[in-house]
Amino acid sequence: MEKSGLEPDTITCASVLPALLLGRRIHEYVVRRNLRPNFLLENSLIDMYARCGCLEDAKGVFDRMKFRDVASWTSLISAYGMHDFERYQQQMLESYMLRKDAWSRIYFCKGN
């Protein structure tokens, strides 16, 4: 958001904060209860962190995944695009396309 020149106001911060705090607590619970590997949970955590702008946390979940599916890769690649980190987005996309098990192609369109 800030990278695009927009600054979040107090209402934006206040509305996102509970979701992020709850998401972090759920993530801690998932780790503590050893509910991984689980595509649904881990992909949802990547998506949650990405939507909150916590790309390092999203990448951390991705990096710790024992198994990754197309949704895992797409979630993180999309997150980088969503926050205008095009270099990282391109690197992840290239890494995905080099995998022997990459059975599908991912196409991204960037809106202005």
From TrEMBL:
<feature type="repeat" description="PPR">
    <location>
        <begin position="38"/>
        <end position="72"/>
    </location>
</feature>
<dbReference type="InterPro" id="IPR046960">
    <property type="entry name" value="PPR_At4g14850-like_plant"/>
</dbReference>
<dbReference type="Pfam" id="PF01535">
    <property type="entry name" value="PPR"/>
</dbReference>
<dbReference type="GO" id="GO:0003723">
    <property type="term" value="F:RNA binding"/>
</dbReference>
<dbReference type="InterPro" id="IPR011990">
    <property type="entry name" value="TPR-like_helical_dom_sf"/>
</dbReference>
<protein>
    <recommendedName>
        <fullName>Pentatricopeptide repeat-containing protein</fullName>
    </recommendedName>
</protein>
<dbReference type="InterPro" id="IPR002885">
    <property type="entry name" value="PPR_rpt"/>
</dbReference>
<dbReference type="GO" id="GO:0009451">
    <property type="term" value="P:RNA modification"/>
</dbReference>
<keyword id="KW-0677">Repeat</keyword>
